[in-house]
């Protein structure tokens, strides 16, 4: 879209925005594609973009059962960091963090990436030991992370109460390169850039079946808008991955839980960073609109309903009020939930599957937004070349059989 002068912008606004160009075409499904991506969240759209941009596969469709970014991509609390424990994870999440640093320029779309720092609080001796272990491990693998005393933590985030509270702040791990981004801008930015490279983005198109040929390889997908032939299907369906994979006869070690978040009424800029507390199950930042963005833990029960138990968000709010007493009188405006797909080791699966031509990107649980560009980048490589990129090579399905787990339960930060 061309930049508008102030007057022309006003005129266009008053005329009901007639004349504004659509950001991506409203594509009709074709009969055949070289590759089909199931799921129009950040991971699926990003994968289609990198398939076209880096692997020159442009006969690609993204099939989305609802609207672009209407899944977890548009429901998350947008925390971005790469302070995971193991080398495999640090490589994956830091690959993503480096891509975030240039994403607005690369997509020519402002994803509002803000490296305001992510501070993870320690409230117990055990927390302190675990956090320090993460700090040392991260620094050893070249990922920034530093240990702060309670006074340093308060200096970094002045609203923090480090006084004599039920969960005293014993210190914090700070990743200064961490921060937030505007979640739906990420979906829209990738959608627009992929569309410009010829990718068809097809909304309101649910995949209902995956057909295989006599050799067992992927042949086509059945959708609510007709049959589409393709030799390659990449599934990036987050909380509904088990349902989609079952269509090809594959059972994955995934459990789907509701995870919820809420926002307050907007207030002036008051909160300078992101603060997370694993022990208390609450995390908080302030959006550019001024709302406090607050997240809670997962529900205890598996479910596909996009709402969580009220007591879970009540608990998170109590914790936030204890840590930041100045927020006690703020009103909450709305809350919502998303369905997160959780693996036994809390690390994702980005891999080929036993079905030739079928690839899966899932298991991000409560923490896949931060990985969006990196995950999409290596998933596109895997689909295009039919082999994993070195970064996602450890994130196989087989690890749950052969025991090469990547246990990131502590780094996942949200209890699940
Ligand atoms: P999604 O955005 O969910 O996209 C999957 C898409 O697949 C959906 O749009 C869905 O409609 C579509 N789909 C499903 N089935 C079909 C089908 N049969 N046919 C066609 N389409 C289908 N992560 C972080 O890193 N930081 C955070 O702060 C953070 N906070 C979170 C807070 C909440 C409340 C929630 C719910 C999640 C949070 N996450 C966070 C996790 C993060 O949102 C997800 O891991 C990430 O967005 C997953 O992206 P995705 O593109 O894989 O999935
Ligand atoms: O993975 O950092 C994270 C996160 C924060 C809130 C939900 N997930």
Produce the secondary structure layout.
Elements: H1 6-14, E1 35-38, H2 42-55, E2 60-63, E3 79-80, H3 87-107, E4 118-122, H4 125-140, E5 146-148, H5 150-156, E6 171-175, E7 179-180, H6 183-196, E8 200-202, E9 207-212, E10 218-223, E11 226-229, E12 233-235, H7 241-246, E13 255-264, E14 274-277, E15 282-286, E16 292-298, H8 310-323, E17 332-342, E18 349-352, E19 358-362, H9 372-385, H10 399-402
Parallel strand pairs: 1-2, 1-12, 2-8, 4-14, 12-19
Antiparallel strand pairs: 3-7, 4-6, 5-6, 9-10, 10-11, 13-16, 13-17, 14-15, 15-16, 18-19
Helix pairs in contact: 2-6, 2-9, 3-9
Bound molecules: flavin-adenine dinucleotide and pyrrole-2-carboxylate.
Helical content (DSSP H or I, runs of 4+): 25-40%
CATH class wording of the largest domain: Alpha Beta
Q: Give the number of domains.
A: 2
List how many beta strands DSSP finds.
19
* Mean pLDDT across all amino acids: 95
By CATH, the topology of the largest domain is FAD/NAD(P)-binding domain
Going by CATH, the homologous superfamily of the largest domain would be: FAD/NAD(P)-binding domain
